[in-house]
Amino acid sequence: MSDSPAPLSVTERAALADLLVELGPDAPTCCAGWTTADLAAHLVIRDRRPDTAPGAVLGGPLGRWTDRVLARTRDRTPWPHLVDQLRAGPPVFVPTAWGPVDRLVNGAEMTIHHEDVRRAQADWAPRELPRAAQDFLWDQVDFLARTRPRSDRGLQVRRTDTGATQVLREGSPVTTVAGEPLEVLLWVSGREDAARVEVS
């Protein structure tokens, strides 16, 4: 039996599901216009409806289809069942159910959305993640940064816990974003207001 810790895709999914049970379907999130019910439905269709993935990325007519499926899932699924589906993760016939793919695809996703819910509540406080978790999130920063709008300006990020840096985009002038990996990941994923970073 392995003594290695469970991956973030597993631990963050479970923690998010627990928090959703505690808060209910109408709590705010850091995703503009979304309640916890919207966010839970988003993650459930992401797990269970691969046909909605292109619309989540590309928008347009495909995005409208994704929005319809999300709304139908949110409105027609009883809240306890919606959270149970999220907790269970993708069904076995979906590629993201396979352990290595799940870790790669869902580790950062579940962590970010867990923070989306946590940080929208009045009493939230930063949490300390294990070094291995921070290292994993640091490795995801470059990929998430590619979703940011294109710019001629340079962008680099720095870990305040180790001093490591990544150049995410060449250009001038250069913006430097410094913080722990979780905070940097939140910033590059478009959550500038929620992330605790220093921008210079």
Helix-strand string: HHHHHHHEEEHE
Helix content: 40-55%
Strand percentage: 5-15%
Characterize the overall form: globular
Radius of gyration: 17 Å
The averaged pLDDT comes out at: 94
Low-confidence stretches: none
Biggest sheet overview: 4 strands, mixed
Class based on secondary structure composition and strand pairing: alpha+beta
- Can you count the helices? 8
Distance between the termini: 47 Å
Strand order of the largest sheet: 2-1-3-4
β-strand number: 4
Explain what this protein looks like in three dimensions.
By secondary structure, this protein is an alpha+beta fold. It contains 8 helices and 4 strands. A 4-stranded mixed β-sheet has the order 2-1-3-4, with helices on one face. A hairpin with a 5-residue loop joins strand 1 and strand 2 (165-169). Helix 7 packs parallel to helix 8 (181-188). The longest helix is centred in the middle third of the chain and has 20 residues, at 99-118. It is globular and about 50 Å long.
